Amino acid sequence: MTINQQIGIKLRYLRESNGFTLQQIGDRIGKSRKAIHAYEMGLVSISVDNLQSILDIYGLRAGTILDEITEWD
What we know:
It contains five helices and no strands. It is mostly helical. The radius of gyration is 11 Å and the shape is globular.
Protein backbone atom coordinates (compact mmCIF):
# COMPACT_ATOMS: atom_id res chain seq x y z
CA MET A 1 0.00 0.00 0.00
CA THR A 2 1.37 3.39 -0.96
CA ILE A 3 1.63 6.34 1.41
CA ASN A 4 -1.01 8.15 -0.69
CA GLN A 5 -3.39 5.25 -0.12
CA GLN A 6 -2.61 5.18 3.60
CA ILE A 7 -3.25 8.91 3.94
CA GLY A 8 -6.45 8.51 1.92
CA ILE A 9 -7.76 5.79 4.21
CA LYS A 10 -7.16 8.00 7.24
CA LEU A 11 -8.76 11.04 5.58
CA ARG A 12 -11.84 9.05 4.61
CA TYR A 13 -12.16 7.62 8.11
CA LEU A 14 -11.90 11.09 9.65
CA ARG A 15 -14.43 12.56 7.22
CA GLU A 16 -16.99 9.81 7.66
CA SER A 17 -16.61 9.56 11.44
CA ASN A 18 -17.17 13.32 11.69
CA GLY A 19 -20.24 13.21 9.45
CA PHE A 20 -18.93 15.25 6.52
CA THR A 21 -19.57 14.68 2.82
CA LEU A 22 -16.91 14.95 0.15
CA GLN A 23 -18.59 18.14 -1.04
CA GLN A 24 -18.55 19.72 2.42
CA ILE A 25 -14.82 19.10 2.86
CA GLY A 26 -14.13 20.34 -0.66
CA ASP A 27 -16.13 23.51 -0.04
CA ARG A 28 -14.29 24.21 3.21
CA ILE A 29 -10.82 23.98 1.63
CA GLY A 30 -11.64 25.31 -1.83
CA LYS A 31 -11.33 22.02 -3.72
CA SER A 32 -13.82 20.00 -5.73
CA ARG A 33 -15.61 16.93 -4.45
CA LYS A 34 -13.69 14.97 -7.08
CA ALA A 35 -10.36 16.22 -5.72
CA ILE A 36 -11.25 15.14 -2.18
CA HIS A 37 -12.33 11.74 -3.52
CA ALA A 38 -9.02 11.39 -5.38
CA TYR A 39 -7.10 12.18 -2.18
CA GLU A 40 -9.10 9.61 -0.23
CA MET A 41 -8.56 6.93 -2.87
CA GLY A 42 -4.83 7.64 -3.00
CA LEU A 43 -5.06 8.41 -6.71
CA VAL A 44 -3.16 11.68 -6.40
CA SER A 45 -0.62 13.05 -3.96
CA ILE A 46 -1.97 15.58 -1.52
CA SER A 47 0.14 18.63 -0.78
CA VAL A 48 1.10 19.32 2.81
CA ASP A 49 -0.92 22.55 2.64
CA ASN A 50 -4.07 20.75 1.50
CA LEU A 51 -3.53 17.96 4.00
CA GLN A 52 -3.23 20.47 6.82
CA SER A 53 -6.29 22.38 5.59
CA ILE A 54 -8.35 19.20 5.83
CA LEU A 55 -6.89 18.22 9.18
CA ASP A 56 -7.61 21.70 10.56
CA ILE A 57 -11.29 20.83 10.22
CA TYR A 58 -10.76 17.97 12.67
CA GLY A 59 -8.36 19.85 14.94
CA LEU A 60 -5.37 17.70 14.00
CA ARG A 61 -1.83 18.43 12.84
CA ALA A 62 -0.29 16.83 9.74
CA GLY A 63 2.54 15.46 11.87
CA THR A 64 0.08 13.44 13.92
CA ILE A 65 -1.42 11.65 10.94
CA LEU A 66 1.98 11.07 9.32
CA ASP A 67 3.33 9.55 12.54
CA GLU A 68 0.38 7.15 12.61
CA ILE A 69 0.88 6.18 8.98
CA THR A 70 4.57 5.39 9.33
CA GLU A 71 3.63 2.93 12.06
CA TRP A 72 1.57 0.95 9.52
CA ASP A 73 4.63 -0.07 7.48
